[in-house]
Amino acid sequence: MAIKYVPEPFRIKVVEPLKMMTRAEREQAIARASYNMFRLKGEECYIDLLTDSGTNAMSQEQWAGIMRGDEAYAGASSYFKFVEAAQDIFGYGYIQPVHQGRAAEKVLFPTFLSEGKFAISNMFFDTTRAHVILAGARPIDCCCEEGKNPALRAKFKGNMDVERLEEIIKEKGAENIGMVVMTITNNSAGGQPVSLQNMRDVAAICKKYGIHLNIDAARYAENAYFVKRDEQECQDWPIKRIVREMFALADTFTMSAKKDTIVNMGGCIGVKDPESPLILKIKANCISFEGFYTYGGLNGRDLEALAIGLYEGIDEDYLRYRIGQMEYLASRLDDAGIIYQAPVGGHGPFIDAAKIYPHIPYNEFPGQVLAIELYKEAGIRTCDIGSYMLGNDPDTGEQLHAENEFTRFAIPRRVYTQSHIDIMADALIAVRDRAKEIKRGYKITWEPPILRHFQASLAPIE
Ligand code: F0G
Predict the structure, then answer these.
(1) 365: annotated active-site residue
(2) 119 forms bridges with which residues in the sheet?
(3) Rounded Cα distance, 5 and 271, in Å
(4) β pairing state of 47-48 and 380-381
(5) Helix, strand or coil for residue 317?
(6) What pLDDT is attached to residue 301?
(7) Which pTM was predicted?
(8) pLDDT value of residue 394
(9) Active site residue 73
(10) How would you classify the pairing of strands 94-98 and 267-271?
(11) 118: phi then psi, degrees, rounded to nearest 5
(12) What's the average model confidence in pLDDT over 268-290?
């Protein structure tokens, strides 16, 4: 039996009409898009779960803030409002706005990474991995074993494997590890949380070997909610205290604010030590790539919306509804016997597509097959988080074999209702029930050298 849906702590004031298409029209659309979900038009998607990034619905307070945005080139009041809010929540000495998460990576990573260096993470997300490689270094994933087994229900499947982390450091030499990155929640492992205890263990190892520790903070608020729910010590703590404790363990953070800060565009870098010489390097890189350091590629109005969104994102009633929506959808999948990275993570279920299409090998991209079938079935746009997304080895050019072949349902914040969630579950069940009819997967007919999944062309294998 599906669990009860947690009601929305808001009501709808503005609506965005959706286009209704037939299956035949969708089949034409996806063929025209070369079977790449990123090449569909937004209006061709009835329910758009391509990403939860920048697709969130802002509140009336945020929209009112847009009007108050101060567009001064330097020293805008919206900048100070944003910095004050971020310092209050994260407890860091320096906050640098940038236009989105990958801009934070581009500005910060080259200050630690270069040729011959390694960066180790509980799991890099695609753009984060790309920025490690672009800086000349090599990324190493070090997720705990539980995180690799979707069917295994365990707490904190996003954790770093701390024993393995120390082994890698010894193997490569501490002087060659440019940085350790803790991704909270662990997006590629299915939005799985990292425990406060794991963060403490990782911080202790970094301290022991003198290695810089950075948090990739895109979904830090959802992570904090899981910590409160599942970590005994934190059950009575306010979300803000959990955030503070987590961040106090790292040296810097990079953040895509397009997720838990509930805006459409924005990001930042945080530096804990207000005296750190790193700050001057960040400002210099920011001026070169993003714009003057008091706006960092953002409009004043964006900074204003961010300052408000930071607080809305850690509101406990909101987080209870947000995670409740995921748990409701997951319980419908449980009823149908569909395997996903369980328990469900913070931004949506990651469906184990290899279980639905066991006869389709990794290099025919089962995660992509499921995404395409869901689109044809109900106009739901999801994406592959598997071998198709992982791409080729940067040194050998060989197709990499992902740990899991997931299809991700990334659910935007405050956007879809319970009936949309039911359509997601119904479509997935229908596609699963006729999975045997799909005999083969897809081949890539063209791909760019890096981050290929955004642009590649695919064709069904006959
Ligand atoms: N880090 C994580 C963990 C992310 O999930 C993302 C983006 C980024 C960094 C980069 O941030 O997009 O603002 O430049 N993830 C999106 C996603 C795109 O769909 O999961 P960005």
Answers:
(1) no
(2) 139, 179
(3) 39
(4) parallel
(5) helix
(6) 98
(7) 0.96
(8) 82
(9) yes
(10) antiparallel
(11) -125, 150
(12) 97
Catalytic residue of the set 4, 31, 41, 73: 73
Asked about 126 being catalytic, the answer comes back as yes
Task: Give, using CA atoms, the residue closest to atom 19 of ligand 1.
Answer: 51
DSSP bridge partners of 253: 215, 270
Cβ-count burial 216-241 (b if 16+ within 10 Å, e if not)? bbbbbbbbbbbbbeebeebeebebbe
Residue 344, beta-bridge partner list: none
Catalytic-role residue among 258, 259, 272, 355 = 259
pLDDT in tens, 334-393: 999 999 999 999 999 999 999 999 999 999 999 999 999 999 999 999 999 999 998 999
Q: Is 259 a catalytic residue?
A: yes
Separation in Å, CA 330 to CA 6, 409, 425: 13, 11, 9
Question: Closest by alpha carbon to 131, among 214, 248, 54, 195?
Answer: 214
∠ at Cα 347 (64, 342), nearest 5°? 160
Active-site residue among 76, 85, 218, 353?
218
pLDDT in tens, 70-102: 999 999 999 999 999 999 999 999 999 999 999
Both tokens assigned to 160:
């770093």
Ligand 1 centroid–CA 4 distance in Å is 30
26-43 pLDDT tens trace: 999 999 999 999 999 999
Residue 304's Cβ-count burial label (10 Å; 0-12, 13-18, 19+) is buried
Closest by Cα among 409, 403, 389 to 458:
389
3-state SS class at 241: helix
Tokens of 189: 């492992």
